[in-house]
């Protein structure tokens, strides 16, 4: 459920939600936190849940890509930003992706990094919080049932793959920290600190080329050749 915009939709009551949950996310407490914190609040708000617990990478991606989603009013992701990334890209691979992407999405923080949940918490007017308090705030936003649109970023690679992101794309040092710290997932958010120190100790050199079209030229209707300075 996105940050405030100019107009809102409202979830129906009663509401049926598909909850996609990664039990390994964060420090491994996502399922326990969902049962202890989230489920009682949703029950009070007349939101019934079907819980789908992922068992491997890309499991949620395949679920939302292939499943008949008409039986649910909203899709709820209880994990970090990575599982929502899977869900968004799974929806965009559906033949009926235009309709599927109209299904309201909700993120409940249960991972090591919960950037989107923290952003929504901020735009909803709440104080900066983390962990259980952030989870409670985001669950309360879901209970209220308001949703609005949010932009996606599209990236096509040289190999022909296409990805969609709701935050941004990383390349180089930051990506290495994220990937290399996977083995420390049990540390929670501290995994990124440890991963950063390790990547600094074996600092690599990244070479690449950045191409772009000037915004002013696009607005003027012309299509100059992409400029390609070294990056």
UniProtKB/TrEMBL annotation:
InterPro entries: ATP-NAD_kinase_N, Diacylglycerol_kinase_cat_dom, Lipid_Phosphate_FormReg, NAD/diacylglycerol_kinase_sf. Keywords: ATP-binding, Kinase, Membrane, Nucleotide-binding, Transferase. Pfam families: DAGK_cat (PF00781). Residues 12-159 form the DAGKc domain. The keyword Metal-binding does not apply. GO terms for molecular function: ATP binding; sphingosine kinase activity. The keyword Zinc-finger does not apply. It is found in: Endomembrane system. It comes from Aegithalos caudatus. Its EC number is 2.7.1.91. This is sphingosine kinase.
């Amino acid at each position: 459920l996105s940050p405030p915009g100019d107009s809102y939709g409202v979830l129906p009551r009663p509401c049926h939600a598909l909850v996609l949950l990664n039990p390994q996310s964060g420090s491994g407490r996502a399922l326990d936190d969902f049962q202890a914190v989230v489920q009682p609040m949703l029950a009070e708000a007349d939101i019934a849940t079907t819980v789908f617990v992922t068992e491997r990478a890309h499991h949620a991606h395949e679920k939302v890509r292939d499943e008949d989603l008409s039986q649910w009013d909203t899709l709820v992701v209880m994990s970090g930003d990575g599982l929502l990334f899977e869900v968004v890209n799974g929806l965009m691979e559906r033949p009926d992706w235009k309709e599927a992407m109209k299904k309201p999405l909700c993120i409940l923080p249960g991972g090591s990094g919960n950037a989107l949940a923290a952003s929504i918490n901020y735009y909803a007017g709440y104080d900066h919080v983390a962990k259980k308090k952030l989870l409670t705030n985001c669950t309360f936003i879901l209970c209220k049932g308001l949703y609005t649109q949010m932009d996606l970023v599209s990236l096509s690679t040289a190999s022909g793959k296409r990805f969609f992101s709701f935050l941004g794309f990383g390349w180089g040092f930051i990506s290495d920290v994220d990937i290399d710290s996977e083995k420390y997932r049990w540390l929670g958010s501290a995994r990124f600190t440890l991963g950063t120190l390790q990547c600094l100790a074996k600092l690599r050199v990244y070479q690449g080329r950045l191409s772009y079209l000037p915004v002013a030229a696009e607005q003027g209707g012309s299509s100059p050749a992409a400029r390609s300075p070294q990056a």
